[in-house]
Design goal:
about 325 residues; 14 helices; 2 domains; mainly alpha; single chain
Length: about 325
């Protein structure tokens, strides 16, 4: 039984709904998420969290509390520094010596972890370790022994429903693959901008990519083509292309604890292929054509600095 794949799918579906694209009422989802993450973190970390809102409605800045472990948590769907600052600035003086943790239940929290926050009540709070999101939770899940993974799996199945057919979930990624598959990839596309070859080479070297280097060299010429497709795709709705790039970045973040260098690059490709094939709006094409299109999108994400470290220096590898 692949517990990870099921848990990953369920957690992302919950985040997807919270972002306003699902059927459930937003407030209901937030309330459900507080209780869900209470049980999830208790199971994963052995904490003794309880829902403070069940005792004191709309408790300032705190949703969950572990009085034994001296932990307080805010559960939020808002991914901003201001949201974290606001929570820390509330009157938390009675929790001196407690650890403060921030759980982001919708989007990726990467951009919050390298920020500096005011901490007037001197709570124990390290942003890099104490701000949680779906990718960081999945990374922890991967480190659990099989019995603990089974326990978490059973909890998620109970809370979020039986395993659903991934064929019922649409993705913008599958739409872009469909558009790209109709392109004549033998023909150069000179529209849009082009990446700096020198910066790409520096980034390849910085990340010690040897086997993947050939893939990047082969498909970097399609960077302008992908940019044109993204621009046209965005006419259908705000953030269409951003969601595609974010899904690729999520695969990078989730797997970087287990893989590195070339293995991580090819793991990302494997994950993207799998997600496309499980999308309800995927129009099947020969597997070699699918892998070709995915290679192009992953290389493009590499060039845009959505995945892997940027080279050190004033000129990053970002093309825009």
């Amino acid at each position: 039984m692949n517990y990870f794949n099921y848990c990953e799918e369920r957690l992302h579906v919950l985040a997807y709904r919270i972002e306003g694209r699902g059927k459930l009422n937003f407030l209901e989802l937030n309330l459900h998420s507080e209780n869900f993450y209470l049980h999830l973190f208790n199971a994963m970390f052995g904490w003794n969290l309880e829902n403070l809102n069940a005792v004191k409605q709309n408790s300032e800045a705190i949703d969950l509390i572990d009085k034994i472990g001296r932990i307080i948590i805010q559960v939020s769907a808002t991914s901003t520094k201001a949201k974290v600052d606001s929570a820390l600035k509330k009157d938390l003086s009675s929790y001196a010596g407690y650890s403060f943790k921030f759980i982001l239940i919708a989007k990726d929290a990467t951009q919050l972890r390298d920020k500096t926050y005011a901490n007037p009540h001197k709570l124990i709070f390290t942003p890099g370790d104490d701000i949680h999101d779906v990718p960081s939770i999945l990374r922890v899940f991967n480190t659990l022994d099989i019995d603990k993974q089974r326990t978490v799996y059973e909890l998620i199945k109970k809370e979020l429903g039986e395993e659903v057919s991934p064929q019922k979930v649409e993705s913008n990624l599958a739409t872009v693959i469909h558009i790209l598959s109709k392109e004549d990839l033998n023909r150069d596309d000179t529209s849009g901008f082009r990446a700096d070859p020198f910066e790409i080479d520096r980034k390849i070297e910085e990340n010690e990519l040897k086997r993947a280097k050939a893939i990047i060299e082969d498909y970097k010429t399609h960077h302008s083509r992908v940019d044109r497709i993204y621009s046209e795709f965005n006419l259908q709705g705000v953030n269409k292309s951003v969601s595609v790039l974010d899904s690729i970045r999520r695969d990078y973040l989730v797997n970087q604890a287990q893989c590195s260098d070339d293995d991580l690059f090819f793991k990302i490709i494997e994950c993207v292929v799998d997600r496309v094939q499980k999308s309800s709006n995927y129009t099947p094409i020969p597997i070699d054509e699918l892998e070709l299109c995915v290679n192009i999108l992953v290389v493009d994400a590499f060039i845009r600095c959505k995945i892997f470290k940027n080279p050190v220096g004033p000129n990053d590898a970002a093309s825009r």
